[in-house]
Amino acid sequence: MPDFAPTTLFDAYGRPLQYLRLAVTDRCNLRCFYCMPAEGIQYLPKRELLSYEEMERLVGIMAGLGVRKVRLTGGEPFVRRDLLPFMERLAALPGIEELTLTTNGVLTAPHVPALARLGVRTVNLSLDTLDRRRFEQITRRDELPRVLDTLYALLGAGIRVKINAVVMDGQNTEDLLPLAELTRELPVDVRFIEEMPFNGGSHAATPATLPWHHRRIREHLEAHFGALSPVLARPGDTATHYHVPGHQGRLGIIAAYSRTFCGSCNRLRLTAEGGVKTCLYDQGVLDLRALLRTGAPDDAIRAALTQAFRHRAANGFEAERQRPLQQLSFESMSTIGG
Questions:
Q1: CB-based contacts of 26: which residues, under 8 Å, 6+ apart?
Q2: Is 117 labeled as ligand-binding?
Q3: Where does [4Fe-4S] cluster 1 bind (predicted)?
Q4: Which whole number is the average pLDDT over 15-30?
């Protein structure tokens, strides 16, 4: 690897590149209906996925462009073999200051001690309900007990947990308050996410007509907890967090479909097959796998990433408008990388 000489890469709107969401697989052991269609998706052949060595090389290049935080996503990261040795190598890369992951928790609990040894400080845990029957209806799998085992294992190891719950009209809105109540006794962030169109098909709602938009979610929480005052946000935060007096944890709302946080976005996504998305809503702007496998040197990859990031859309609405008409049906979230 060349001498590490980090720079700070900015886009045309003055937003820095600091955060990479890296999908290590498109495969998942759950079948959440809001993430993929009922019939599932066609998984990529192994040869079409980036190897760990290719990912490590790309993360090293991105660290030189300003990336300091890497979040591993999927699919479900732990369905890919040898994930922890790969994480060890990423954590050792010059410039990488924070390594974390998003998981559904089904396979995670046995690996919690290793995550703690790696210095993982926070983990995002996808959990849309505390009701076992509804969990099975949403995920098409009866795995809630294992997910809760992971939650308590993470907390026991001193790893802060951010619970991500997608709010779905007619599916789990009665679960918002039970999930929020977890913050009373546990040092967790419970974040409620607007439902997005990434289920492998089209989405009937618009941000204006979404049944459970961020304002309604807040009103629902305030009817139970009283007025919520936002906690000061950090640069690049997607969630608006709220502290409830007397609670150990915090509540949060992520306006993922309303896209209220685009102005401070500091991230890009790398899909499992090597596609770069500079916005969750774009169609993919760069094929890094092709560059890697045709022998491109680091300088050429760095230049391509710089070009792509500097020309990214102003916000998610612009990125969506720029999608070709034939691509307006959105892909599955498991292929995007969360």
A1: 41, 43, 44, 49, 74, 75, 271, 272, 273, 334, 335
A2: no
A3: 28, 32, 35
A4: 95
